[in-house]
Amino acid sequence: MSDTKTLTGDPFIRGLFESLLKRRLFYTEAFEIYRTSGSLHSDSRGLFDYGPPGCALQSNIFEVWRRHFVLEEDMLEVDCTILTPEEVFKTSGHVDKFEDWMCKDSKSGDFLRANHLIENVLEARLKGDKTARGVAVDDTEKGDAKVDAKKEKRKIKDIKAIDNYDGTELGELIERLDIRNLDGNNKVSPPVPFNLIFKTTLGPNSASPAYLRPETAQGQFLNFKKLLDYNQNTMPFASASIGKSFRNEISPRSGLLRVREFLMAEIEHFVDPEGGKKHQRFNEVNNIQLNLLDRATQLSGKTDLRNMTLEQAVEKKIVDNETLGYFLGRIYLFLLYIGVDKSKLRFRQHMANEMAHYAADCWDAELLTSYGWIECVGCADRSAYDLTVHSKKTGGSLIVREPRLEPLKIEEWQVDINKAKFGPTFRKDEKSVEAALQALGQTQREELSEVLKENGHITIQVPGTLPDDKIDVSKELVSFEKRTIVQNTRDYTPNVIEPSGIGRILYSLLEHVYWHRPDDVARGVLSLPLFVAPTKVLIVPLSNHQTFILVIRRVSQRLRQFGISCRVDDSGASIGKRYARNDELGIPLGITIDFDTIKDDSITLRERQHETIDNQEVWDDIFKRLPEFISQEGDD
Amino acid sequence: MSDTKTLTGDPFIRGLFESLLKRRLFYTEAFEIYRTSGSLHSDSRGLFDYGPPGCALQSNIFEVWRRHFVLEEDMLEVDCTILTPEEVFKTSGHVDKFEDWMCKDSKSGDFLRANHLIENVLEARLKGDKTARGVAVDDTEKGDAKVDAKKEKRKIKDIKAIDNYDGTELGELIERLDIRNLDGNNKVSPPVPFNLIFKTTLGPNSASPAYLRPETAQGQFLNFKKLLDYNQNTMPFASASIGKSFRNEISPRSGLLRVREFLMAEIEHFVDPEGGKKHQRFNEVNNIQLNLLDRATQLSGKTDLRNMTLEQAVEKKIVDNETLGYFLGRIYLFLLYIGVDKSKLRFRQHMANEMAHYAADCWDAELLTSYGWIECVGCADRSAYDLTVHSKKTGGSLIVREPRLEPLKIEEWQVDINKAKFGPTFRKDEKSVEAALQALGQTQREELSEVLKENGHITIQVPGTLPDDKIDVSKELVSFEKRTIVQNTRDYTPNVIEPSGIGRILYSLLEHVYWHRPDDVARGVLSLPLFVAPTKVLIVPLSNHQTFILVIRRVSQRLRQFGISCRVDDSGASIGKRYARNDELGIPLGITIDFDTIKDDSITLRERQHETIDNQEVWDDIFKRLPEFISQEGDD
């Protein structure tokens, strides 16, 4: 699959790239010292620690997210708990539906995620891997098996059709293609569902089961009414949250792309479902051109991208509404700002049966990596699903009550009951009869009103009454009247548009900005934009003389005072080598401390990539903040 | 206990204060909508969500931490996983020792934390609460019971002696004083230990138990070698981490002060144990005067504070070493910077039996609140404990190898074995005999060398050899030689000094900055410093005229562009009332949009508290960043 290219057009070699990231401590497998010693079960994989550059990069990416989305639109940021009582996820549907299909290796007992198993086996067969062809297929059929694999592979590749298969479909495919575990060639059990939320218990006894949230959203929904109140009852508004979420992946592979614990930024934009979900600032993004892979294209089995402006996409109803379109545009701007390669970015619409159980529509911003197209930022229309189910379950109000500009007048048939006579007549059945009358629809009421006028009584169904669940009601006891009702307020449950970014952005971005010099393949370069670069400035002294040490300390303290991170390389290597070595950390700026610095405090400021940084404001900012440094031209 | 005062000297009323925090959505009990509906078990308490102002305040406090500690000292920030395999916490001692003592109500089955139970009952008895006096004490003994309670209470109060009691001691106290559950007056079971780490499972089968970390430290320790390498093998250095930790409190009370999930900032400063743990920058803090409550004072049953400079404290060995002292000073500066009331801050040394199982010495920065003195930032010397146990368990190297400036020469008795004859002589016992010889100490080797010279052979103990675990070795097979060894490197396991700040800072700080105007008791004011205030600027338009709306939007967009958060209050209330109302959110700056603004773009900038902000640079910063606004004198 690693047919992607680096920035300079060379083939991307994942081994070299990953070796850089681990060597420079962008990340490391968590508890590696335990894993190396053999004291950890293989089930404990899928957990990664971020070292200093990875941690800073992650926190910069999410800080840009915070400024770009949360601050810019005055969203209400909240920090809700990760621990969540079972009741909440029962209501949201996660306890029942948040699951993947898994198979068990018949001999080793290893668990495998069914769709990944099939994909991997088919891919291996395409490559001619003999161990992957299944024992049922003997040599004469080998050609067929390959053709078969190719056919299936094409079906499930790119558009990820297999992600939509249910257990029966996956099982059928495993059976028909004789899919086995690549590791040992053993048969596997039919797929069974496995719930992905981590379980634990609150308090000392087992009466209060709880889960680690798989998304930050539920806490935001449960606080909706309070947030609306904090927002002075003004709609629309958005809440936002940045925090860890957890998913108990069946058999995590793919390094940082499939992990059990990850940082997540989620926005819940609450909008009135009436009026077509317009957005006030849509005009700021309507000219942005996106590469879209819509549902219709995928249904036809294709992956061709349609390039169009957001205005066109909303007009043609490819993107359902302005609010969804607005956030697609904002996500696009965010991704470009942090350094994503525009040519490796597409927006893919979810298939109807692929969407999460709560979603009404969903688009993913996908980034092309050596693992294929990877979902990095989702944008879902969750409709009124969550607010409705939680409100129904708890009886709590999660609605908006708005004054109507024009009072609404409705004509309505009402049921009038003669209370004084009603009770004595029906005695113990009084409540059931009244409930049955109130349950009648408008049309029924109108019809029964006629019957009552003609016959003087009506017969209605009242379950549980003797002898035959039917009751006669006379006109002395009930009447139906048509009246005009005036409503001054309107109650509605808002719909939710949810842009949701996850930790995978970090890995995919790193692939996009990675390249290497033709003469130095082993040493990579990360062309990270200034704002997200983990370390902003490399300080390189020309000499190791004692006088330099004090200057270095002064310069670096001054930078840190302004919140600018820096790293000193005072090793004996040549200036050029030191810069090259620190290219691997993606440091965009360099300061050379030379003998002039000692004399007159001047330094050489150097922009590392000999390229112009897009955002001129950034450069201006730096110079403004470092007024006492005189900049010279870099000459390295 | 609420005998603390507000900023203006009025008695602090917790009810009013908490009502403010909840009303203005600083925080709320998590899942309140579920709790209200009665569908949550009472065991699910101790979980809180931060609303917009609480979330921003929390993130500002930790951002100051990051700049004050991490960036200022070039610490290596990492982000390690919360999920941790059981093996790691077995080694660290948490699985065995991270526990509290709990009692069970004999009738209701409720669990109670033993030390809190005793404290609460004694306090209730002192107040004369009849239900708290125990049934064994009849009316005639009532006086005695009160005297008893007073005596015990004094013993355990303030210096928190009871936190050091073990299960037997707690049980004895419960028995002797007839301590019962205040809720129902039932007897309670003897205390049993309860482990506070949340348990879960990684992957689909139960072979890989894991825990949610109760501190961020372990991940930093496990990565020590990689971090040292990233730091170009230079000592000393520190790693740091800001993230969530979890503790399964037995029966959480006290609102935000005892929660099951909290944000934590931890620094692990690695230092050479030799040379007295000096710190290069100690001279920057040595004149700071701290209020210390040291171990000796507490042992004498007193709580008097000793005020002295850090230099004196280290000189007198009250604070063990410079590095510990340096961080106490830095913690002091941090707390003052974020707005803590200096008169409500003390540093308390842990008693020997009170310290966590890993600590060699420990000081807590405690803040005085209506709940008493609350531990908010710890500073522990964890010695070489953690690195040693993990290294021992895994066989992985967690040491520093340093070149010696002067090679170290050691005289050493070495064992020389004649391999050619040794094997044939001892056959299957060869390895055991050799091991026994190598296990001999230096003195033994010297002595045996004499014996060998005199007798021509020696007799040594070799367990497992026939007939009597003794073996004769002749001088043809072995000799002992004294030689001079030169060591060019030194290996050592660093000690760890750990400043560790937790979410409780937020609540305690809010109590410190809270007050109310004499004529408006119900409406509070939070005097938060500019840097930590959740919202920086309140925008108040003088009119609701259409022309104002555009100006408001322009001003607030401009502020947000600079990362300055703002809130608009365009309600119809008077300017003064609007300012007062937003005092509850601790907004330090105000901008009034008046008719001049519409004319000539001038605004009125107002510093809300009519006090001088300490840090002039902050003001300068604001004006620098808002160059196009002309400031006028506020006249509200």
Helix content of chain A: 25-40%
Shape designation of chain A: elongated
How would you classify the quaternary structure? homodimer
The SS-based structural class of chain A is alpha+beta
- Rg over CA atoms of chain A: 32 Å
Q: Compute the separation of the termini of chain A in Å.
A: 39 Å
Number of helices of chain A: 22
Number of beta strands of chain A: 28
The largest chain-to-chain contact, stated as pair and per-chain residue counts, equals: A-B, 88 and 88 residues
Q: What is the total domain count of chain A?
A: 4
CATH superfamily of the largest domain in chain A: Bira Bifunctional Protein, Domain 2
* Largest sheet descriptor of chain A: 9 strands, mixed
CATH class of the largest domain in chain A: Alpha Beta
Kindly identify the CATH topology of the largest domain in chain A: BirA Bifunctional Protein, domain 2
Mean pLDDT of chain A: 87
pLDDT below 50 for ≥5 consecutive residues: which ranges of chain A? 135-142, 610-619, 625-636
Strand order of the largest sheet of chain A: 3-10-11-21-16-15-14-12-13
Any guess at the CATH architecture of the largest domain in chain A? Answer: 2-Layer Sandwich
Pfam families (chains A, B): HGTP_anticodon (PF03129), tRNA-synt_2b (PF00587)
Subcellular location (chains A, B): Cytoplasm
InterPro entries (chains A, B): aa-tRNA-synt_IIb, aa-tRNA-synth_II, aa-tRNA-synth_II/BPL/LPL, Anticodon-bd, Anticodon-bd_dom_sf, Gly-tRNA_synthase/POLG2, GlyRS-like_core, tRNA-synt_gly
Keywords (chains A, B): Aminoacyl-tRNA synthetase, ATP-binding, Cytoplasm, Ligase, Nucleotide-binding, Protein biosynthesis
